[in-house]
Amino acid sequence: MEGFDTVNPGERRKKVICMPGGGFGAFLAHSSVLNHLKDAQFPCSKQDLIDLAEDNHAPEKVIEALEKLPDKEYTATSDLTEHLSVS
């Protein structure tokens, strides 16, 4: 995710917004997971996300992160990232 720095309103510098619980490493890990889900059609189930990641040849670490998700219907990428924990 990205946002804009509001310290200097006349200047639109990009800044990185890290995911909850995370730091920059968590941001990169979340980006890796989301990269393998770029064609996801929402709403979708946890299993739909796992299947899509496998179809996109995601590494085992991505599949493991998706398997830890709550078993629910996800309505958008933001809904997914709220529940995503990557170690």
Molecular structure report:
The chain has 87 residues and is an alpha+beta fold. It has one domain (2-83). Helices cover 43% and strands 11% of the residues. The chain is built from 4 helices and 4 strands. It has helices at residues 24-35, 46-55, 60-67, 77-83, and strands at 2-4, 14-16, 44-45, 73-74. It has a two-stranded antiparallel ribbon. It has a two-stranded antiparallel sheet with strand order 3-4. Helix 2 (46-55) packs antiparallel against helix 3 (60-67). It is globular and about 25 Å long. It starts with a strand and ends with a helix. The relative contact order is 0.18. Mean pLDDT is 75; it is low at 1-8 and 11-25.
Distance between the termini: 18 Å
Kindly state the number of beta strands: 4
Topology as H/E string? EEHEHHEH
The tally of domains stands at 1
Sheet-strand content, in percent, reads 5-15%
Helical content band: 40-55%
Task: Describe the structure in brief.
This protein is of the alpha+beta class and 87 residues long. The chain is built from 4 helices and 4 strands; from the N terminus they run ββαβααβα.
